[in-house]
Design goal:
This protein is α/β, with parallel strands linked by helices. The chain is built from ten helices and eight strands. The relative contact order is 0.16.
Length: 229
């Protein structure tokens, strides 16, 4: 008796097969909370480039990861997790931090929206900053926040040096900031396209939705740092 598997079942089986190898599972675990370049993945997992390329290819074919081109160094690509390929991958209690600081170049859109989302969804304190802060928060970021029930009317851009504390968990929400933060190795990276480069409400709403999805994944993984005794 033959069995006609549904296309959904075949796709799910392909994902399970792709994850059924320790190196590929470790690669996916690495991308759950942030994006990374192939070189960064190889260094963190100790994989040679040819073996890493093999694993990445299989994960791409299974629809688990995808690539995006860096908006900073255009020669670079970043790997990101395609969460639609599977469910229930959100980790729990992986990090402890006294505060989460979202960083982008100008601190005028993505980092401001991410901090506002975090403040609404987590009890862990948050802040935002820029490596080269603008003079004001982008008007379309303010409008997008308002559309989704958040307020950025009093938000102002700040320089990273004036905000960051030693034990903060840093989340770079743009490629430029990630590539500039060479002194902060233990950070997360979210490769969120710059909506200001497009300058439309649609682009800002897309950035908001991307950030909201990522914040939802990170919130259960971060616990408040224990108070000093």
């Amino acid at each position: 008796m033959s069995t006609d598997w549904s296309s959904d079942m075949v796709a799910r089986a392909r994902v399970h097969a792709a994850l059924g190898e320790p190196a590929r599972l470790a690669l996916v675990d690495l991308l759950v909370l942030g994006d990374a370049s192939p070189g960064e993945v190889g260094r963190k997992l100790g994989l040679p480039s040819n073996l890493l390329a093999h694993h990445v290819k299989l994960l791409e074919q299974a629809g688990v990861v995808e690539r995006s081109r860096s908006e900073g160094d255009h020669r670079r690509t970043y790997l990101r997790l395609r969460t639609s390929a599977f469910a229930d991958l959100v980790p729990s209690g992986l990090r402890r931090a006294p505060r989460v600081v979202f960083v982008c170049s100008h601190n005028s859109a993505r980092s401001q929206l991410a901090a506002a989302l975090w403040k609404r969804r987590s009890a862990v304190p948050t802040a935002s900053a820029g490596t080269r802060p603008a003079e004001r928060v982008h008007p379309l970021a303010v409008a997008t926040a308002r559309t989704h029930g958040l307020s950025l009317t009093r938000a102002r851009p700040h320089h990273l040096d004036d905000v960051l504390r030693p034990d903060d968990l840093v989340v770079a929400v743009c490629d430029n900031a990630h590539e500039e933060l060479t002194d902060h190795d233990d950070r997360l990276h979210w490769s969120v396209p710059d909506p200001a480069a497009v300058g439309t409400p649609t682009a800002f709403d897309a950035a908001y939705r991307d950030l909201a999805d990522r914040v939802d994944r990170l919130v259960p993984a971060v616990r408040p740092a224990p108070e000093d005794s």
